[in-house]
Write a sequence for this structure.
């Protein structure tokens, strides 16, 4: 058995959004407080992070994280990668050099964005120690967990979702190629992007996400990467029980 913790479930702005006075941003429901989307997988005593967003430090403190065995990246937009510097602390606590798995395009971005990590000779103090490991479409192991990359569309860009066991994680998704649908059969849990009600060029709307979830036929679907336009309680009340919004700190077991 393993456990998935939803470290964050919000869009790139987070919820509440800076300077916004809407009902969701002012909500007293803790499930309407959304940090940037990321999950932590605990499996056989090891911890694997999918994406390291801007809020990683806050999320780690909230969940009492004190070790990390691997990071897997879906893509390199700021809300998914800008927490990578926090690896410094986990290097000290648990893993002197942390393996980081990403597509070759994402690895190039990481080397550019965090060029100070890879400078030679090292002239900076306090830098994260990581090993970049490229992945493509073949299964790989991260922290002892077998993961299957699932190419998906984020607007015009192809990024990676991941399947592990009977769970699939597809954030920042606006389309799923037919060849990827074949990798998503027999799911117990689907974690899927659902930004808002209105269509968006690079994310599924809630209606599009529900349609994609029905097509995949997962037993349960939990939506992530929501904006402030979707209140937790009011949105879940109009969704089927098998499809609900996730919330920060939510935990789900998987086998």
């Amino acid at each position: 058995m393993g456990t998935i913790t939803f470290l964050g479930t919000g869009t790139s702005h987070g919820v509440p959004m800076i300077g916004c006075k809407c009902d969701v941003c002012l909500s007293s429901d803790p499930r309407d407080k959304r940090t940037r989307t990321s999950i932590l997988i605990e499996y056989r005593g090891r911890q694997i992070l999918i994406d390291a967003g801007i809020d990683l430090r806050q999320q780690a403190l909230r969940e009492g994280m004190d070790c990390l065995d691997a990071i897997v990246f879906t893509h390199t937009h700021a809300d998914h990668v800008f927490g990578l510097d926090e690896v410094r602390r986990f290097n000290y606590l648990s893993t002197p050099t942390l393996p980081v798995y990403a597509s070759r395009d994402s690895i190039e971005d990481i080397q550019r964005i965090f060029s100070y990590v890879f400078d030679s000779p090292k002239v900076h103090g306090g830098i994260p120690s990581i090993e970049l490991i490229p992945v493509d479409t073949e299964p790989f192991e991260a922290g002892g967990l077998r993961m299957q990359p699932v190419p998906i569309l984020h607007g015009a860009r192809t990024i990676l979702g991941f399947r592990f066991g009977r769970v699939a994680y597809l954030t920042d998704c606006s389309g799923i190629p037919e060849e990827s649908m074949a990798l998503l059969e027999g799911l117990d849990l689907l974690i899927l992007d659902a930004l808002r009600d209105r269509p968006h060029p690079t994310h599924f709307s809630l209606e599009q996400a529900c349609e994609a979830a029905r097509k995949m036929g997962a037993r349960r679907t939990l939506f992530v990467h929501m904006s402030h336009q979707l209140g937790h309680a009011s949105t879940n009340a109009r969704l089927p029980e098998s499809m609900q919004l996730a919330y920060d700190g939510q935990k789900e077991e998987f086998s």
Q: What stands out?
A: The longest strand covers residues 145-154. The domain at 2-246 is CATH 3.60.15.10 (Metallo-beta-lactamase; Chain A). The radius of gyration is 17 Å. Residues 206-216 form the longest helix (11 residues).
